[in-house]
Amino acid sequence: MKAADAAEAAALAAEKALQERAASSAPDGEIDTGPAEVDAQPAASATAAGKTPARPEDCDLAAGGQSQMNACSAAQFMAADRRLNELYRTQTDYLSAGSRSMLRSAQRDWLKYRDATCAYETAWPDGRCSGTICPLQANLCLKRLTDQRIADMERFVNCRDNGCPL
């Protein structure tokens, strides 16, 4: 398989994963905020090599071309996703059963919003994400929205006074 064909396959997989996540709801129980399958294999090798820049904009400077930029952005999104999951678990451990149920519902709705928003933002005029840059675009969107949710969740975790979610 040529590199261009592999990149196109990754872009199609990213688009399909985003669309499927936007169309489906999470199962009962724990919330999996896990990454849509967006160029996950190269991301693992980039992380293992210790070459993941700290900021998404640094991915544009990554050596190795588009494939490396896709891997870099996927690794950054997965790191943000892990942080969000840690905060979510911390908060749910603190909450009463009723509030835990409300947060679980809110988180499921937020995941649908995140995935649908990124599917929309990465769609081209023909309605699908295509090209070798698609995984980078999807990863950057997913990370940006996940970072926003991390800020919300940090606020919940750090607020333990009257008026905070219990």
Structural features, described:
The chain is mainly alpha-helical and 166 residues long. It has one domain (3-22, 36-158): Substrate Binding Domain Of Dnak, Chain:A, Domain 2, CATH 1.20.1270.180. The chain has helices spanning 3-23, 40-48, 65-94, 97-121, 134-158. The longest helix is centred in the middle third of the chain and has 30 residues, at 65-94. The model is unreliable at 1-12, 21-29 and 35-49 (pLDDT under 50).
Topology (elements, then pairings):
Blueprint: H1 3-23, H2 40-48, H3 65-94, H4 97-121, H5 134-158
Helix pairs in contact: 1-4, 2-3, 3-5, 4-5
What's the CATH architecture name?
A: Up-down Bundle
Q: How many domains make up the 3D coordinates?
A: 1
Please mark out the parts with pLDDT under 50 across 5 or more consecutive residues, or reply none.
1-12, 21-29, 35-49
Secondary structure: helix percent: 55-70%
Query: What can be said about the biggest beta sheet?
Result: none
Strand content: under 5%
Please work out how many helical segments DSSP would assign.
5
CATH class equals Mainly Alpha
**What average pLDDT do the residues reach?**
74
What is the H/E string?
A: HHHHH
Net shape: elongated
In whole angstroms, the N-to-C terminal distance is 53 Å
Q: Helix/strand/pairing class, anyone?
A: mainly alpha
Query: How many strand segments?
Result: 0
Summed up:
The chain has helices spanning about 5-25, 40-50, 65-95, 95-120, 135-160. By secondary structure, it is mainly α.
Defining traits:
mainly alpha, disordered N terminus, Substrate Binding Domain Of Dnak, Chain:A, Domain 2, 166 residues, 0% strand
